[in-house]
Amino acid sequence: MFDLLPSRSRRILVCGHRGHVMDGHENTRPAFRRAAELGASLCEIDLRLTRDGRLVVFHDDILDDASTGTGLISRLDYVQIAQFRTKARNGLPIEGQPIELFEDVLSYCRDIGLGLIVEIKDKFEGTAYLEQVVDLLRSAGMLERVLISSFDYVVLRDIKRVAPAIRTMGINYHRLVDPAASARSATMDVMNTDYPQFAPDLAEGLHGAGIGVSHFVPRPEFFALRRDYGVDYFEKLDAYLRAGLIDMLVCDDVGWAVDFVASSGLAVARLDPSE
Asked: Residue 234: exposed, middle, or buried by beta-carbon count in 10 A (0-12, 13-18, 19+)?
């Protein structure tokens, strides 16, 4: 299993959010491959369940905004979804890619040496959904190279009951009163906090409980105008990295993240400690 607290040894995991999507389509093989080429440790992907019980790698509950198809994924069979192709949300004329089954993405990322954060998006009752996820991870030999993530902390608690060895990450948009207590309640291994809610005391509390700290930041251009106005978040981010407060940096732009980590005097953590 890869280290979820690499900050202890001046390293950090870099995660491509849905792959490297600056010049490609999210949740597709080219985005994963490019992320790996740029030096990502992992990529984050999203799961959706089709009407006929297949798990596909796609962010939205509908096809309309990021593919050539239309309709709710939960009301379509995979054979219908498979005829569509992805499309760029920003309108770039990029060749569309297949909407792939989870098991095929697992095999591909395993073969290129890329770890995954698997975000469970759907609402469901019982444990059959989670058991299916775990079975596919085991079949692909990816159980130790994956974090299961969700905004739903009950899901994270329940998947640990299905597979105690699996590791999980809670997604957090808030400034929590006691982040470690929230993490412990869901038995999570990592907590991710999105910009701008990250704060040193949050990270210190999580680290004190032995819980990894992940931080999602928007694309670099989001900060450009703010820097012109005299607000430079990158100065804070550099200080956080140098202080060892962050174990994983998540961003759409993997190349930028890798370069920023290097400029802060850290090394990107590899999944294989021998590398």
From this structure: middle
